[in-house]
Amino acid sequence: MNASMLSYILFSCLLLSVQAENCVVREIIRYTQRLLDDSSLSCPCRQTALSSCSCLPIPEHGYELACFVDGTKHLMENNKSSNPAIERLYLTFQAQLDRNLCKRMAGGDQCQYKTKGNVKEFLKKILTTYQEIDK
């Protein structure tokens, strides 16, 4: 094995290790903050089918990412107007879950929760979870 091949292998390993911690924390925080500032998303969680307000899973520890995927997918499907921030969050969470990109968010790939909350409570859970990673 020559020196250029060895340096290529080392560089590839370095790239993979950087990608493995690709939590894109600041981007997620920025999009979540933008959604929290959007007053049209604030309404009480009612578990009836007639309610236009979403009841979203507030995840148990270790299942955050799976619940964030489920919750943002639900928001996309039930939001009459498409919201690029919600779509971006959903795609980011789905990629992190599928590829195990964010080691600190490793856990179950099925959403587990004891409580549900409204959109604001769900977004605040995303925000606090990623702010903890950012510290």
Automatic annotation (TrEMBL):
Gene Ontology cellular component annotations, sorted alphabetically: extracellular space
Molecular function GO terms recorded: cytokine activity; interleukin-9 receptor binding
Keyword Signal: yes
Family matches, as InterPro entries: IL-9
Keywords for this protein: Signal
Coiled coil region boundaries: none
Signal peptide, first to last residue: 1-20
PANTHER family on file: INTERLEUKIN 9 (PTHR16926), INTERLEUKIN-9 (PTHR16926:SF1)
Protein name: IL9 protein
